[in-house]
Write a structure and sequence with these properties.
The structure is a homotetramer of 342-residue chains. Chain A is 33% helix and 21% strand. With 342 residues, the first copy, chain A, is an alpha/beta fold. In chain A, the strands form two sheets. In chain A, strands 3-4-2-1-5-6-8-7 form an eight-stranded mixed β-sheet, with helices on both faces. In chain A, strands 10-11-9-12-15-14-13 form a seven-stranded mixed β-sheet.
Amino acid sequence: MSQKSNMIRVAIIGASGYTGAESMKIILRHGEARLTYLTAIPAECGAVEDVFPQFRGRCDLQIEPLDLEKLAELADVALCCLPHKVSMEFVPRLLGAGLKVIDFSADYRLKDVSVYEKFYAVKHTDTANLARAAFGLPELFRDQVQGADLVANPGCFPTGAILAIAPLLAEGLIELDSIIVNSVTGASGAGKNPSAKFHFPNMNENLFAYGIGTHRHMPEMEQIAGELAGSEVRILFQPHVGPFDRGILSTVYSEPKQNVSDDRLLRLYEDFYGGEPFVQVRKDSPGVKDVVGTNYCHVFPAIVKGRIVSFSAIDNLVKGASGQAIQNMNVLFGLKENLGLQ
Amino acid sequence: MSQKSNMIRVAIIGASGYTGAESMKIILRHGEARLTYLTAIPAECGAVEDVFPQFRGRCDLQIEPLDLEKLAELADVALCCLPHKVSMEFVPRLLGAGLKVIDFSADYRLKDVSVYEKFYAVKHTDTANLARAAFGLPELFRDQVQGADLVANPGCFPTGAILAIAPLLAEGLIELDSIIVNSVTGASGAGKNPSAKFHFPNMNENLFAYGIGTHRHMPEMEQIAGELAGSEVRILFQPHVGPFDRGILSTVYSEPKQNVSDDRLLRLYEDFYGGEPFVQVRKDSPGVKDVVGTNYCHVFPAIVKGRIVSFSAIDNLVKGASGQAIQNMNVLFGLKENLGLQ
Amino acid sequence: MSQKSNMIRVAIIGASGYTGAESMKIILRHGEARLTYLTAIPAECGAVEDVFPQFRGRCDLQIEPLDLEKLAELADVALCCLPHKVSMEFVPRLLGAGLKVIDFSADYRLKDVSVYEKFYAVKHTDTANLARAAFGLPELFRDQVQGADLVANPGCFPTGAILAIAPLLAEGLIELDSIIVNSVTGASGAGKNPSAKFHFPNMNENLFAYGIGTHRHMPEMEQIAGELAGSEVRILFQPHVGPFDRGILSTVYSEPKQNVSDDRLLRLYEDFYGGEPFVQVRKDSPGVKDVVGTNYCHVFPAIVKGRIVSFSAIDNLVKGASGQAIQNMNVLFGLKENLGLQ
Amino acid sequence: MSQKSNMIRVAIIGASGYTGAESMKIILRHGEARLTYLTAIPAECGAVEDVFPQFRGRCDLQIEPLDLEKLAELADVALCCLPHKVSMEFVPRLLGAGLKVIDFSADYRLKDVSVYEKFYAVKHTDTANLARAAFGLPELFRDQVQGADLVANPGCFPTGAILAIAPLLAEGLIELDSIIVNSVTGASGAGKNPSAKFHFPNMNENLFAYGIGTHRHMPEMEQIAGELAGSEVRILFQPHVGPFDRGILSTVYSEPKQNVSDDRLLRLYEDFYGGEPFVQVRKDSPGVKDVVGTNYCHVFPAIVKGRIVSFSAIDNLVKGASGQAIQNMNVLFGLKENLGLQ
């Protein structure tokens, strides 16, 4: 596509990981945004095509160490793909350089600093920006995102789990102390660094639980759920990882306060997500392959033995990370929300 | 191994499917049992090596249409790998031919005929044998199995799920109306017949739920759980299938009646399964790859936010089918229980 | 993207298979083309989102039985994704309806009717159109494609294999009677219909050869190679299929007529493919994952023990089918060649 | 199985890797051999069940640092699973301790020390034992193995490739300067240490070539082929790795000296391998899944366009490593050759 002069200029901070690459892929076909600046730690710098062979002939930028002046000059918005804890060191500088920032880390998601500090075991050093960051789940908080200059892009598990039950929470239909979120993610969720668990001969043909009682996405889910319900919510979240690259299937168990029919449930979901481009209410159970490579979330609620079982499927790297970030970017800049994401 | 004259002679009825093949594999290295007679429907008969190339040079039997006289003459025990509903037509004849029978179908598992008839949508035609069949989960019902001449080999999901929580049920530690069993099975669970869902380009890189509210293993779980608890148990069972050949990981959520510590929980499991060769209590969460190809079940209980989360991993074709059948056979014939299963 | 009135209107004939779906996916983000008409056999018709859940919310067309008048009215170009033999019944009518046609089948690829009739065991019924069809491998025959109204979209294996060795053939560098093409394709190459070989529990963790001495892409390779070399070429082609969805890795063995250095070889490839957007000459061996989901072909030639070993990787459904078709469409309509393919 | 007093006592040196684990698995069901001593480098020692959870309840040994006195006292034979170069430091000591040794490394395979030193880039320090080591491919060199006290267990690729063409070489049927071996291995071939290439999100859904012109199994193939042919043989060997755990499919291309029919070819193979328990001549092309988990090699030769294409499938960890080692052990000790391997 021809690169028009009024295109949004996008920098990716921390471009050498999986979410950086996925963001690049989306921006390359966006139409109204273009990549202008890519950064990483020195050990992971170099021509994009050397870091990611899949970009040979598609992107001739260099991944460089971050230079704030260059950034200020070259970009309108930064997709900040740095890890937790590192992000809050850099975000104030990115904002200071005059950019809008969409941050992929957890550093600006948890409004209660003490919860953050407990789960991430580190002091929060940028509480001022934390206070004003928008939570970038546009389907639920689009108003916050419009007008923000800092967006906390949600975690992958919370995105899927919350979209699975948001209508129930918003309608006050379920008990708030007995929600169970059982999720299975593809292995790309573990990131780019090799390890014994994700060594192919171990991960292939395998499936296991992890983060038992300790996963950091649990308080994030509880916070968003609480905002939707207008009251404290208690969630038991149990993640698992399976032998596939991408996708998260969440199976969420909840107790309705009173009897509800399958039909009413379906209608509730359809009404709640009616105008949303990226949330599709299914009439059957979705598979992760129905959404892999897309920014879509497929949801399906059912009544089983008096409980509600809500399913959702997303691509952890798209709706669970880079796609949602660019959806947020589109909202921030007043563009059509599905640009680059069709 | 040399074939001693006093070896148990094993027939496999319905030898052309996955559980038939797995049973053959185990008997071939058993040491005190040998294959003598293999049957299938005519369309699936032929030399074993033509039906299953992996047996070339390992087994030179023919798979033949069932002939009851030949069976009576050639075998001491029948592993009956027929599908539900077909099994109860044949089992009486197998017993009539003087053999001990280990039946892989659901036909002799559900003691309440009305539950069977509801979930399998067919009239039960062999209630006399149903009444006296032993439920072949040796870890829980070894006494029944010893001395039986008909053993109902348990379903794969019930085996994994019940072993995950049997100590809790037997000790009366948990509420009986809020148990949730969330399981993920490998695709061999779907059997040998090609279908759109299990076509490689659909199943690969995919994961989805099925049998929502309707899976036939749900009443089976409730029956066994009820026997252990001495009271009616209500289980919400949700199966999923993932992109791997073998294995079931079950994640079982339950509510303790009163506070219990991780340590006490672990000790309870260790005491309960102390002498069992095939149930291993782990100190961490098991992966399906830890048990694939074996008859072992790895379990691990944990306390999360006041609930108990119990994990179990089995190979659906071994401990969930053929391995457990041969474990039952070993019990029936007074052999060492792990023969062929080490 | 907003749908401009001057967009190319695209019909997909045979939209219910894998190449139909992949074509839809690409057109949906093309920017200067849009889907207007989708057809299939009656048994596979219905809302796109019911046939392919991944298009829910992305495309609200119906897949309908073909109506030639409607087609003529609604579309400028037809991507004809019908199977071999069926295609030549329909292509004359599509052309007759005034459309440009890009045909995915083999029916218009083999210029020698007797070779076609031998390998496809059927009489060719549309030799007039066969004679004037362009062979749609733009990197080699772009001139033919521009100006054509019927394009024969190449086979997936020939695309990868020929791009791996085209510089050698065009330069006359290798012996023409001893070329060996060894390829491994992902399982999507087998199409959408379930079968025993591609049943997940059989195909997963498996790899096998097929089409030994009989694969229909062999004469297609020989024809194109012959055109490049200006002389008859003899190719031994051996395909294999492995446990992955997409991608073909071809390893092509050939004998240089005289000594050639690695450096000269690399320069030859770089010169030959210098301006091509979709062929990337690597300095190391490509993996299929470097190209999956893209229209790129990565090639790498090396000298081993006096032979030339040329590697190429493509996505069988993109550069090997739908992507190349849309690349051809872009050429036909004078658009930027990578529209929809970035 | 009861452990008889006259069982062969087996030590595994370097028990913490994949071939160590596979060897343990086989010995555990051997019947006439038992594990008595397991060693590894200190960082990888510990209870077997902690190093390999799949052995919980199946083996209660400790993996310990090597103590030669203890070894001499406890074991009759050592399976030496150390890496290349390390092995030749330890093998003389193992022999000195009075054990028979089956060595998995390349250190005793290449009879020409200069070839070894070139390909392994290290000086050979144990040429005396090298000279007398038997090459442990029993189907071809059973006489050597009987009576040996040191067996060099062959490489995985040479095992598959040579068994695919041994009848052709022994009969003098093919040209010796134009053999091409194209192989695809599963990822367990890369061993246990995590790396970027074998990180699940990279290796999954991927397939690539490696070791182009440099793979160390190439001279090993040439040496064995040369012995069979009685003359120097030149082999171009190109390995690839695909997204599956186990198995090697080798596709070997050769030129017959004169015309030969498919039938004669098949008969030649059947005669050559007639009595061999572990080599099965197929009438169709084998898949790796036909042999995975077994010590079998399936071969199939075909004529294609005047060339011979020979296929073989083995499990790289069984017939390509641990299974063949135990087959060798059975030969060394005069046992039935398939003990533990049925």
